[in-house]
Design goal:
Number of domains: 2
Number of helices: 13
Number of strands: 18
Largest sheet: 10 strands, mixed
Radius of gyration: 21 Å
CATH superfamily of the largest domain: Enolase-like C-terminal domain
CATH topology of the largest domain: TIM Barrel
Helix content: 25-40%
Shape: globular
Structural class: alpha/beta
CATH class of the largest domain: Alpha Beta
Distance between the termini: 25 Å
CATH architecture of the largest domain: Alpha-Beta Barrel
Amino acid sequence: MDLSGTIQRIQKVVLTFKRPRLIGRNAKRGVHGDTLTDPVVRIYSSSGATGIGWSRIDEAGARSLIGRPVSDLIDETGTSEVGKAVDLPLWDLVARQSNLPLYQLLGARGSREVELYDGSIYIDDLDATDEEADTIFREEVATGHRYGYHNFKIKIGRGARWMPVIEGTDRDVRVIHTVREAARPDAKILIDANNGTTLNIAKDIMRRCRDVDIYWFEEAFPEDRSFNEPFKLFMQEEGFDTLVADGESGPPPPNFFDMVEAGWIDIVQHDFRAVGLSWWRETAKRIEPWGARCAPHCWGSLIERYAHAHFAASVPNFSLLEAAPADTPGIVLDGWDIRDGKIVVPDTPGTGFDLDPELVQQKVREEGGFDLA
């Protein structure tokens, strides 16, 4: 692992990407819109290497890193407290300096073909009749197929805020069946309630969707032993193979990993940007002996997926990578491909991701980025 050099220069720009359609509500938040923004940072080492990735570091924080040895910011165990703000760019930098693809630097214990799911099927049907809702969600699945996705996650929990409980639950169940029918026969179907169901409603949905073969149920309710333990026991008694996914909403309770170790939570989902790749490396090792899997939350970013996929290819207990259709002007990819619903991690040094240099300069000049040396 090559940790040579000092930080000589840091650039930051904010990219805006367009989605092919408006993204609606989840169980607790209003319309999400049709665009997403990504703050991207490039760091330059005196070794001549650069690293690029998602980061929210501000100008003052970036200035404090200029002149620091790379070895002060990251080592074999991960980023230091000082380097945490540029965790993803640092991992890219060190992988490039080491002339290794990031997944190999991290350990290469997983598959280079990382299975994706389209997480963009939100609550888009509040003013629609049942028949109109069917059309809406069949079209959303078709959009996902056009962008190369085979698996789909569906936002449910309409009865938590947007509709009466019984009516909302009925519509949740209808949409789950509609997506199942519109997707490929081998598609994994996931549901996400954003804590918008109760234990009893979650059980009801599972029973009514038995024929769907739901792959995982995410955030049915806030993490709590008095809910998670009986829900997992219900799954076992009813013969469901559905996995329980949680941990995205932060911070999870102090006993969260006790529930993972006990087997009441199968999929750990702490946000990849919020906690960082270094944190996830350690967590993947921690939960592996328990049979638990990694599926970090990453909604709202597009460029994060490249470092995220390298992480997925470095651990054996990765589940599915969250993604969503979007157009990506200005992104330069080296060796990446999507095949059969999977993103294929390249063998090029670093993450194999970059930005058009002219776009970076334009963003720095016109849109409030910075370029510090």
